[in-house]
Design brief:
This protein is of the alpha+beta class. It contains nine helices and 20 strands. The structure holds adenosine-5'-triphosphate and magnesium ion.
C-alpha cells in the first residue's frame, strides 16, 4: 500500500533519513517506534509530501507519488498538538476539511462523530473539551475526508496515562472498524506493543528491524532492538554443545555457563545471550526448580524500579540485573552482600547469533 524505497533526507549536513525502507500493507496499523530525533516525524512528512526527500521513491498502491503535492496524496494526518479552530464548534471543525475539498458533507460529520464516540457533541466549543475529547475531534476531522491512509504522529503524547490508555484502545478499534491503513509514530514501547499489527524500530534514520509485536519484543534479531525494548543482562558467549533431541544448547561465557533453547547453529558459534530482568527468579538459598539455569552470586545493590525492585547481583565478576516485587524483596529481607541463587529457564535466554 505505502512503500518507501531508499529514502534519504539531510538537513544541512545532518543525514536524518539514511536509506529508509518501509512497506506498509493495506488496512494495517503500522507503528514506527524510535527514540527522539531518529527521524520519525521527518519520515511521515516525506510520506505526506510536507518535506521533499533528497532521493528514493515513494509508492502508494504501486504508483510512484514523488513530487505529488500534499493535497493530491489522499493522506490524512493527526499530530501531537492538534490545533482545533477555537472559533468553530465541533461540527464546524470536522466539516472544515470537507468544505475545503468541496465534498458533500451530508451525514458524514455525524458518522465521524459516532465513530469516535462523540455523537451529540456538534455544538460544543472545542476549547471546553478535555484533551482526550479534543484528540478524538482531531481524529474525526481526519477520518471524515475518507483518506486512503492516515498518518499519526504521537497523537496521544499530551494526554495523561489513563486517558491515553483508553484512547489507544479506542484508536485501534476505530482503525480496524474503518479498515484504514495507518502509520502511527511513537517512542512509547507499550503503545507500540498494544497498537501495532507490525512495528518497525527506527534508529538514526533507518529501520533496524520490522515485525509483529511478538517478534520485536520477544525474538529481536538485533542487539540494538533487544536493548531498546528493555532486554538486559547481555553476555558474550560461545556455543559449546547442542542437543537437538533435548531441544537445548549450552553456551559458555567468560564468567559462567548458560543453557538456552536449541537453535540450528554450529558448535563454536559466537553469540550474544540476554535475559530479561523480570524472567529471573532470585532466592536466598538453593531450592529445587525445573529451571535449567542456576547461578550463584552476591547482591551489589538494591534500588526501586517503578513498581518493582531492581537487584544488581555480582556473578563471578559479571553483573546481573534482576527485577522482583517489593513484597518479595521485603519477605526475603534482602540486603547488600547477601549470597543469592538466580534461576531462569532455558527459554528465558534470548540468543542473538
Ligand atoms: N526542518 C528541519 N530543519 C532542520 N533540521 C530538522 C528539520 N526537521 C527535523 N530536523 C532534524 O532532524 C532530526 C530528526 O527529527 P525528527 O523530527 O524527524 O525526529 P523524531 O524522531 O520525530 O523525534 P521526536 O520523537 O522528538 O519527535 C532532528 O535532529 C532534527 O533536529
Ligand atoms: Mg517527532
Amino acid at each position: 500500500m505505502i512503500q518507501l524505497d531508499n529514502i534519504c533526507k539531510s538537513f544541512g549536513d545532518e543525514d536524518v533519513l539514511r536509506s529508509l525502507n518501509l512497506h506498509v500493507r493495506k488496512g494495517e496499523m503500522f507503528v514506527l517506534l524510535g527514540v527522539s530525533g531518529c527521524g520519525k516525524t521527518t519520515a511521515l512528512s516525506v510520506v505526506a509530501g510536507l518535506v521533499k526527500e533528497d532521493s528514493g521513491d515513494i509508492y502508494v498502491d504501486g504508483t510512484r507519488i514523488n513530487g505529488l503535492p500534499t493535497a493530491k496524496r489522499d493522506i490524512g494526518f493527526v499530530f501531537q498538538n492538534n490545533a482545533l479552530f477555537p472559533h468553530l464548534n465541533v461540527h464546524e471543525n470536522i466539516e472544515f476539511g470537507l468544505k475545503a475539498r468541496r465534498i458533500d458533507n451530508r451525514g458524514k460529520v455525524k458518522r465521524a462523530l459516532e465513530i469516535v464516540g462523540l455523537d451529540g457533541f456538534d455544538n460544543k466549543n472545542p476549547m471546553k473539551l478535555s484533551g482526550g475529547e479534543q484528540q478524538r475531534v482531531a481524529l474525526a476531522r481526519t477520518l471524515v475526508t475518507e483518506p486512503s491512509c492516515i498518518l499519526m504522529d504521537e497523537p496521544l503524547s499530551n494526554l495523561d496515562a489513563i486517558v491515553r490508555e483508553r484512547l489507544r484502545y479506542e484508536m485501534k478499534q476505530i482503525q480496524k472498524e474503518v479498515g484504514i491503513t495507518c502509520i502511527f509514530v511513537t517512542h512509547d514501547q507499550t503503545e507500540a506493543m498494544m497498537l501495532g499489527d507490525r512495528i518497525a524500530v527506527m534508529n538514526k534514520g533507518r529501520i533496524e528491524e520490522c515485525g509483529t509485536p511478538e517478534k520485536i519484543f520477544y525474538k529481536p534479531e538485533k542487539e540494538f532492538v533487544a536493548r531498546f525494548i528493555g532486554m538486559k543482562n547481555f553476555f558474550n558467549g560461545k556455543i559449546v554443545s547442542l542437543d537437538e533431541n533435548e531441544g537445548v544448547m549450552d553456551i559458555t561465557t567468560e564468567n559462567f555457563d548458560l543453557t538456552a533453547v536449541f537453535m540450528p547453529l554450529d558448535e563454536g558459534t559466537h553469540v550474544k545471550a540476554c535475559i530479561r530482568p523480570e524472567e529471573i527468579i532470585l532466592m536466598r538459598s538453593n531450592q529445587k526448580t525445573s529451571a535449567r539455569n542456576e547461578i550463584r552470586g552476591k547482591i551489589l545493590s538494591i534500588f526501586p524500579n517503578g513498581v518493582l525492585m531492581r537487584i544488581l547481583v555480582d556473578v563471578c565478576g559479571a553483573e546481573f540485573f534482576v527485577d522482583i516485587t517489593r513484597l518479595a524483596a521485603h519477605n526475603m529481607e534482602l540486603k547488600v552482600g547477601n549470597d543469592v541463587v538466580l534461576t531462569f529457564k532455558a527459554c528465558s535466554v534470548h540468543v542473538i547469533p
